[in-house]
Amino acid sequence: VALKADGTVEAVSGTVISQAVGTPVVFENANSQYCTTVFDPSSNKVVIAYSDVGNASYGTAIVGTVSGTSISFGTPVVFESGTTNKSTASFDSNSNRVVISYRDVSNTGGYGTAVVGAVAGTAITFGTPVVFESAEVTHTGNIFDSANNKIVISYKDGGNSSYGTAIVGTVSGTSISFGTAVVFNSSYSDETVSAFDSNSNKVVIAYRDGGNSYRGTAIVGTVS
User: Measuring CA to CA, which residue among 98, 122, 106 is closest to residue 173?
Assistant: First the structure.
């Protein structure tokens, strides 16, 4: 029943909407954490990156192929032979590469690191991981700026009072290089997420501002 404005109730009628859903498919036969997913339109594949707890929490990725409402997977590939978490991923449509950013816990407690992957069939191969922040990072955002063909990673910089920080990366083959990190919020910043606005060709970063009662805050960035 539903309550009406005059204080009385009446029966509620409705229509059931059916939806075709597939069957869940296990892609890792072990405890898996910090999953992130990205679509690679150049190969029409899905790439899932995660921390494989069943294998010492190594950073791992797997390629999925969707057919109708089902999905099948290739073989998992380790991209970081160390404990990783907080992974995020984006697709660089200029180089047709997947970029995974993550916290490398095995490297001095959590250096910010990124790695580039190339999908071929149901497999993915990776270049050498590159540190973009020599300090503990968490809450990373990772997007591709298609106007400038750059990757932008935003994060909480534990080496600089947990300030909100962003850095620009350039992909070449299966390698990535970075510019100079820029602070976008000079106070504690976490829960960072980001997007690229292709209408204005700007990057938008949303975060929780610890310097302002942890209010939800957003800022616009321009890559040059």
Answer: 98
- Please list the residues that pair with 49 across neighbouring strands: 36, 61
Contact between 157 and 181 under an 8 Å Cβ cutoff? The reply is yes
- State the Cα–Cα distance between residues 207 and 141, nearest whole angstrom: 10
What does each C-alpha distance from 204 to 113, 160, 199 come to in angstroms?
21, 22, 12
Residue 75 confidence (pLDDT): 98
**CA 206 – CA 126 distance, rounded (Å):** 29
Q: What is the mean pLDDT of each run of 10 residues along the chain (224 residues)?
A: 79 70 95 97 98 98 97 98 97 98 96 98 98 95 98 97 98 98 97 97 98 98 97
CA 30, 36, 40, 45 dihedral sign is positive
Cα distance between the two ends of the chain? 58
CA–CA separation, 191 and 208 (whole Å): 6
User: How many other CB atoms sit within 10 Å of the CB of residue 218?
Assistant: 12
CA–centroid distance for 146 within its chain: 17
Lookup: tokens for 183: 């602070």
| Spatial distance between the Cα atoms of 97 and 59, rounded to a whole number of angstroms | 17
Smallest CA-to-CA distance from 101 within 119, 81, 84 is with: 84
CA distance 8 to 193: 45
Gap between the Cα atoms of 32 and 145, Å rounded: 30
